[in-house]
Amino acid sequence: MMDARATQAPSALHIGDIARRSGRSVHTIRWYETQGLMPGVVRDRGRRRVYSDYHIGWLDLMERLRLTGMSIRQLREYTALVKQGSASLPKRRALLAAHQLRVHAMIAKWTEALTLVDAKVEFYDEWMAGGRRPTVSPQQRARDKRSMPKA
Amino acid sequence: MMDARATQAPSALHIGDIARRSGRSVHTIRWYETQGLMPGVVRDRGRRRVYSDYHIGWLDLMERLRLTGMSIRQLREYTALVKQGSASLPKRRALLAAHQLRVHAMIAKWTEALTLVDAKVEFYDEWMAGGRRPTVSPQQRARDKRSMPKA
DNA sequence: GCTTGACCTAGAGTATGCTCTAGCTTGTTC
DNA sequence: GAACAAGCTAGAGCATACTCTAGGTCAAGC
Predict the structure, then answer these.
(1) CB-based contact (8 Å) between B60 and chain A?
(2) What would the pLDDT profile of B82-133 be if each residue is shown by its tens digit?
């Protein structure tokens, strides 16, 4: 019977352990807490922060959300919902689903942006091969590619 | 004879025109220039910057490169190469190709990061449907998904 | 009981990428 | 030739996200 969070101790980690295992600095972890991004952190007699394995997983989630462009402000909102308990499940679900959509949209935007870079590389290849500036501009190539994909 | 820029005149645009047509502020365009990101800008008698249609396309490229995560520093390097003329074509080609690779790698990383978010949404759905916390953690689900995609 | 290392708080400093202000000049229009 | 829009330079200010410093406390080993 090893209950994970509430009070017990499946593992009692200090900030240095968490830093090492999450690949962050202790500074950063304390800063995350001041920003409201660390739920369920308790203190021991000496006022030291005590963490559990839960926080390793939590920081992994935070990292993935940050990586995919979620701001600290939004992470704070999400963390606040988590702190409210299961009553906030629909809101948490909605927040993450909205983020998924944003990330997919961003990937689409990036892919679109790459068409011009692709065209530019092609343009440079032709220029170098032919010895003079090609007549078809990269912008025109990019437009062509978008209007007839894979042609 | 309305000569625009010391040599020829396909179009003579002032900073306000460029700002309007590129969707940026005049401040930003001047700042881009101080950062070395605006090649071939000349001045008229009254010291005003004069642009051509070329710069509209240029700013479009800058925007796409920025959007896909290229830093101002790297844009500056690229711009410096463009200013050097055709001798720098191989270097420009290499710089853009390297950027393409980075963007593709980033998209892969993002897609990977999304697996946990997907799993989390699924986890919340089950939790809400079942009324209690599911036993399989989001982290475990994400691992499962990665080890056997589309199963 | 003293040293050492890890931890504490508060707050300053840094990097990036803009964004705007102040004060002045120039070009155009009436 | 006066008014006014648009441009100019230099530099300050701002948002985001850390990152680190200073000065002190606490716990464990010797």
Answers:
(1) yes
(2) 999 999 999 999 999 999 999 999 999 999 999 999 999 999 999 999 989 9
Any atom of strand C under 7 A from CB of B73? yes
Both structure tokens of B80? 């410096």
Cα–Cα distance measured from residue B64 to residue B67, given in angstroms and rounded to the nearest whole number: 5
Provide the residue ranges of all domains of chain A, joining segments of one domain with +. 1-83, 86-151
Q: How would residue B145 be classed by pLDDT, with cut points 50, 70 and 90?
A: confident
Structure-token pair, residue B84: 């050097």
Chain B contact set for A90 (CB, 8 A): 128
What is the tens place of the pLDDT at every residue in A6-24?
Answer: 334 467 999 999 999 999 9
pTM of the model: 0.88
Strand stretches in chain A, DSSP E: 42-43, 49-50
pLDDT band at A25; cut points 50, 70, 90: very high
C-alpha–C-alpha distance, residues A4 and A10, integer Å: 6
Are B79 and B39 contacting, i.e. CB atoms less than 8 angstroms apart?
yes
pLDDT tens per residue across span A111-141: 999 999 999 999 999 999 998 999 988 888 8
B116 at interface of A, judged by CB pairs closer than 8 A:
yes
- Give the number of A-B residue pairs with CB atoms closer than 8 Å: 95
Q: Is the pLDDT of residue B6 over 70?
A: no
In the structure encoding, which two tokens stand for residue B6, read together? 């010391």
Which residues contact residue A73 at a Cβ distance below 8 angstroms, ignoring those fewer than 6 apart?
A: none
Rounded to whole angstroms, how far apart are CA atoms A127 and B127? 59
- Which of B60, B114, B126, B135 to probe by mutation at the A interface, max A CB count within 10 Å? B114
What residues of B are in contact with residue A86 (Cβ under 8 Å)? Answer: 127, 133
Asked if CATH classification 1.10.1660.10 holds for the domain at A1-83, the reply, yes or no, is: yes
